Amino acid sequence: METNPGELQARHRALRVRIRDGDADAYGELFDAYARSVYNHAYRLTGDWSSAEDIVSLTFLDAWRLRGRIDADGGSLRPWLLGVATNVTRNTRRAARRHAAAVARLPRDEVVADFAEELAGRIDDEEQLSLVRTALAQLRRAEREVLALCVWSGLDYVSAAAALGIPVGTVRSRLSRARKKLAKALEPPKMRGQARGDRTTAVRPLKEGNR
């Protein structure tokens, strides 16, 4: 039996109130419902499973710390959590850059082994994944965030705008730029420079899979 919109809205409101009031059981329900979604979003932003796991933990810690800001009225808390995860990812990247810079200043006495031969023997699927990652790395951070929220996590423009704290029009324009850049980056070399149809079709398969 399907839940009607009124009942669903009432459930969302009740969960919001319970979490805002510090109900640990409600917080557990929130984690069970959206941990996988946050995990997938974090991986799409970082491209690293280990980092994604860390971001999930930090996201829910931040969510608990920020629970007092949750409004009683509203729908699912998933967009809000994805917004928290996006901010956590930004902070994690800044910390990683500071760490890398500190390490780079240390004296280097050891020669790093050359893994070129090992890498050359990897399967084609990994080469394709590398191509996608390279294409994503060419996007600006703001474009990657909007792409992850709207295309992979399935948020509408309004929810994505609320999660990022930006206008809806900004979400639309960033998503459009991201799609065009990805489509161009993923084109076979022989297609570049030729007349093309709708480039956005090149990124549609990225939306598939568990959100």
What would you say this structure looks like, in words?
The structure is a single chain. 66% of the residues lie in helices and 0% in strands. The two termini are 24 Å apart. α8 packs across α9 (168-185). Residues 109-125 and 191-210 have low confidence and may be disordered. With 211 residues, it is mainly alpha-helical.
Structure, briefly:
The chain has 211 residues and is an all-alpha fold. It has helices spanning 5-20, 24-46, 49-65, 78-104, 116-120, 124-137, 141-152, 157-164, 168-185. Helix 2 packs across helix 4 (78-104) and helix 8 crosses helix 9 (168-185).
Output the helix-strand order: HHHHHHHHH
* Percent helix: 55-70%
**Kindly state the mean pLDDT as a whole number?**
75
Largest sheet: none
- Helix/strand-derived category reads mainly alpha
The Cα radius of gyration reads 20 Å
Number of helices: 9
Contiguous low-pLDDT stretches (5 residues minimum) are: 109-125, 191-210
Give the strand tally: 0
